[in-house]
Amino acid sequence: RRPPRSTPLYSSAASDVYKRQSTQSTWDSVIYQGIMNAGEKVCASLCWVFNKFSSLTSFPSVAGYAYYTIRKAVPLAMHFAPGKVNKYIASCTPELLKKYSPTWYLSNGHLQTLYYMWQSTKRGSGKNLVFSRDLVPLKDGGQISLDWPVNPSLESQFTQATPIIAVIPGMAGGQKDPYIKTIFEAAATKGYKMALINHRGGSKTELLTPKMYSGANSEDFEAGVTAIRKKYPTNPIYGVGFSLGANILIKYVGESGANCLLKGAIGINNPTDMNFCNIKMPHQLFGLYDKLLTKLLVRTAELQMPKLKPLEKEFGYSISKRMKEAKTIRDFDNCLTVPSYGFATSGDYYRKASSINTFHNIRIPTLLIYANDDPIVDPEVIPYDECKKNDNIMIATHPCAGHLGFYTGFSPKQWIGTPVIGYVHSLEGYHNQEKQEIYSHIIYLSS
Question: pTM of this prediction?
Answer without folding.
Answer: 0.84
